[in-house]
Write a structure and sequence with these properties.
Elements lengths: L6 H9 L23 E6 L4 H10 L4 E7 L3 H10 L4 E3 L2 H8 L5 E4 L6 H10 L3 E4 L7 H14 L3 E3 L7 H11 L6 E7 L26 H5 L26 H10 L1 H6 L7 E4 L13 E7 L10 E7 L5 H6 L9 E6 L3 E4 L6 E3 L17 H9 L9 H18 L6 E2 L32
Parallel strand pairs: 1-2, 1-4, 2-3, 4-5, 5-6, 7-10
Antiparallel strand pairs: 7-11, 8-9, 8-14, 9-10, 11-12, 12-13
């Protein structure tokens, strides 16, 4: 795929917006089936968060871990000690080619740029998929993955475990009780990336010797070739680099914008505008502030709803000071309503503001659900997931649209979600997808 807007992918992704507007997938896909008995599971990515996902998923009594896959042999060896009967693979393509009939489900917990290629391969093979956030690296990938999940009937879940935690459950209960009335504005903020991974940096010169355990070509996958640099990309710092990650908003937006889109039942944004610095060719900026405009509905005040994303330690200080909120979590979502405000964080109990006005309102305990086990149960035909790829793709798309806005500072980009167009700035459409390295083509993205 070149840098020009991929017409075939556009048509396929746009068709995926409606259940009746269907185009065939580029590759024949198998229907996923409910699993009877133990779920035979393949772990794709077993280091870092992949190890955590593997631990959680394997803790379900109905899981049998039959395959482990990682481009780093050290990660693979550590996981193999815990699951000595599982087959081991360095290349996920070999896993599917040699053992595709031997497993029912997979988790995909690898760098962002490889999410869509691997998830699409899994869905194409009729597997149930647990995919880490953000769902994909680009907007068009998100559309393609959601479309594939719908067509194959796979049970899917995005790894936004906070969606199932006690604090968000309690916040939702407070919101639905109507304490703050209809919402007229939302602010979402994160302390990332400062102190977590590098952003605002240029390409590092030179190269370093490759670790014996790492297959660098497999790690790069669809991304353009570049030299290996020790401790700069693998295993964690890749998040701020445009070739591999999605920056602070892509990483944390799926956690923190989740309550806004979920509680308010928002549709696709109408427009977005960045007030911060643009990314360079290598990495996302050190901080950003993106203003969105969403269509109103029964839960919001008349007129477009403004939602502002802040990262790099920025936050809506004025609004919080006016509410006398006091210290707040550096990662949170604030709903401003006609009767008051609701502060929701995945890490702290929710608060109604001003505190003195709502002093008599008890804060509910909320209900926690094991996000990973919910997916395993659904794979076995028991219940449904709360963050399936249909919703996950939408949540990811909103965050990724913010990243596109970064490239056009102080300019309002109108967005036509149905046609996948920026009517007033068609040049922005090139950022809806990225080129794929030769030899790594993905049928659904061709």
């Amino acid at each position: 795929m070149g840098s020009a807007f991929p017409r075939r992918l556009f048509l396929r992704a746009a068709a995926g917006l409606g259940a009746t507007a269907a185009l065939p997938l580029a590759a024949r896909a198998e229907r996923a089936q409910p699993v009877r008995g133990l779920v035979r599971h393949a772990a794709i990515g077993v280091g870092g968060m992949g190890a955590s996902d593997l631990e959680q998923i394997s803790g379900h009594g109905a899981i049998d871990v039959v395959a482990l896959c990682d481009v780093d042999a050290a990660n693979l060896a550590s996981a193999a000690k815990l699951f000595p009967r599982a087959r081991t693979y360095r290349d996920w393509r070999v896993l599917f080619a040699e053992f595709g009939s031997g497993f029912d489900s997979a988790h995909v917990t690898i760098p962002d740029h490889m999410h869509a290629p691997v998830m699409l391969a899994a869905l194409r093979a009729g597997k149930h998929v647990y995919g880490q956030k953000p769902l994909t690296h680009t907007v068009l990938e998100a559309r393609a993955v959601a479309d594939a999940a719908r067509r194959t009937g796979a049970v899917t879940q995005m790894g936004i475990q906070n969606h199932s935690n006690r604090n968000y459950s309690a916040a939702l209960e407070l919101f639905r009780a109507g304490h703050i009335g209809r919402v007229h504005e939302v602010h979402v903020w994160s302390d990332r990336p400062a102190g977590w991974w590098p952003q605002g940096v240029e390409r590092a010169p030179g190269s370093d010797p490759l670790p014996e355990t790492l297959d660098w070509d497999l790690w790069l996958g669809v991304a353009p070739e570049r030299p290996y640099k020790k401790d700069l990309y693998h295993p964690f710092a890749w998040r701020g680099f445009v070739d591999f990650g999605t920056g602070a908003q892509g990483d944390m937006g799926c956690h923190l914008m989740d309550p806004a889109l979920w509680f308010l039942e928002l549709g696709a944004p109408l427009a977005m505008r960045s007030d911060g610095p643009p990314p360079n060719d290598e990495s996302f900026p050190l901080w950003s502030r993106v203003h969105y405009s969403f269509p109103p509905n029964r839960l919001t005040m008349p007129g477009p709803l403004p939602l502002t994303w802040h990262d790099g330690g920025r936050s809506p200080k004025l609004e919080l000071e006016e509410l006398a909120a006091g210290p707040v979590d550096p990662n949170a979502c604030l709903f401003l309503g006609e009767h008051g405000a609701l502060l929701a964080s995945p890490y702290l109990p929710p608060r109604l503001l001003p505190a003195e006005k709502f002093a008599s309102v008890p804060i509910p305990a909320g209900t926690a659900v094991n996000h990973w086990h919910q997916w395993v149960d659904a794979c076995r035909g028991k219940g449904a997931t709360s963050a399936p790829f249909e919703y996950a793709a939408f949540l990811t798309e909103v965050a990724l649209l913010g990243n596109i806005a970064l490239r056009f500072p102080h300019e309002t980009l109108s967005w036509d979600a149905k046609r996948l167009r920026f009517p007033t700035r068609p040049e922005a459409e090139r950022w809806l997808s990225t080129p794929v390295r030769e030899g790594w083509e993905v049928p659904e993205l061709d």
